[in-house]
Amino acid sequence: MDWFEFIKTALTGSLHSIWQMARIILPLMIILELAKDMHILDKIAGWMAPAMKFFKLPKEGAFPLLIGLTFGLAYGAGVIIDSIKEGHLTWRDLFLINIFLVLCHSVFEDTALFMSVGANGVVILISRIILAVVVTFALSRWSGLAKLEKLLGNKLMISHCSHCGKGDHIG
């Protein structure tokens, strides 16, 4: 086996893949950051508020859900934690938003990345959204959710931030 050729091929292929991802992710992140700074995302979250009733969620859940859908789980988690600390979301709200986002997050970026490797982006996007809506709707109507909340709801912890020391028991 020619190790030099193997390393060269692996390195070239990896750099090509990184370049493809960067061409997709960087413009998307710039557009999303501009939309956030121009408060376009706040307006869209306001439009989503009526749809939140479909899941029996408060209108305050629209912004964390929108952020998770567009920016992904890491940034969405920060917004969700802030909403909890501000008292806008209950355990039930958090559970349903997280279920939705586990199934359908970072829709623009993920869809574009899958399309770059040849997948059908429309099929991926629509199937993720439908699955998230169906599962979240079913759980929002599930009678066992109240039992689960009684069992786990008072154990919601927000860990302490290593930088600012914020975080405490919510419940």
UniProtKB/TrEMBL annotation:
Parts of the chain that traverse the membrane: 21-41, 61-82, 94-115, 121-140
Domain of life: Bacteria
Ranges where the Nucleoside transporter/FeoB GTPase Gate domain occurs: 19-114
InterPro entries: Gate_dom
Keyword Membrane: yes
Alphabetically ordered keywords of this record: Membrane, Transmembrane, Transmembrane helix
Record's protein name: Nucleoside recognition domain protein
Organism expressing this protein natively: Desulfotomaculum nigrificans (strain DSM 14880 / VKM B-2319 / CO-1-SRB)
